[in-house]
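Reply to dn_fold:

You asked what the input looked like. This is it:
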Amino acid sequence: MTKFSISAGIALALVAGSALAADLPSRKGPPPVYVPPAPVFTWNGLYGGVNIGYGFSGGGNWQGVQTAGTFALPTVLPGSAAWSVPTNMNGVLGGGQIGYNYQFSPWLVVGVEADIQAADLNNAQSVVAPLGAPFAVGTFGAATNAMHVDWFGTVRGRLGLVMPSYPNLMVYGTGGFAYGGVNNLTSYSMATPFFAPAGAFVQGASIYGDTKTGWTAGGGVEWSPMSFPAWSVKIEYLYTDLGTVTQNTLAVSNFNMNGASFVTSSTPYNWHTVRAGLNWHFNPFAASAPVLAKY
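and this is what came back:
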């Protein structure tokens, strides 16, 4: 009986202790804090921006030939004049661009870009060409040429390479279609030979103004700061070729005895461009970030 009482007392004490411990306040650690993963940089999406730069001649010569003749028969005579002078078109340019990039892999980006530029690319030059027999020695023809590009634009593909260790730096090549507003003025004048009356001269001019098309190609480097991934800066080079402007000029004499001169000239419109640009990137097709609710 005594042993039973002792055992019952011990069990009762254990039960009471457990109940008392259950009533005591508990101390729990704070809930784990959710730390979102660092965003992965990507070139995906739309972008738009502005640029400014400088253009200069891509080579080629302004060429011309003057053929003497009459109003009825423009024959080439030994006294014809010809010239070939290097062009030196240059000037400031600037504008805007819009494009889209798609990053296929950590190292490959494919995109398309269109830009429009205001330009002040121009050059004016002149040449004096002597005429030989059968004209008198000392007779010269003078030609002038003024070339100007007021604006131009391009639509290009882009292929970029990215190093996975530097995902915010892209080196790219680009090329495609180019077009632009071209204006060219050519004039020609000649003091008439000895057999014409004093004061006689030959003079004429030709004006060209139109939109020409061609091609462009180049490359560049674009970098986006990790702290401001929506922005990027770039340095870009382009070579643009809009072909050649050919003009035929009739230089008319003020004295019928001397007839007229016919001048054919060609001017190449190609140039190099070096420019810097600033882009803002946005992607309206990107998925929205999840919303975390607290209770």
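Residues 12-16, 70-78, 287-295 have pLDDT under 50 and may be disordered.
Hope that clears it up.
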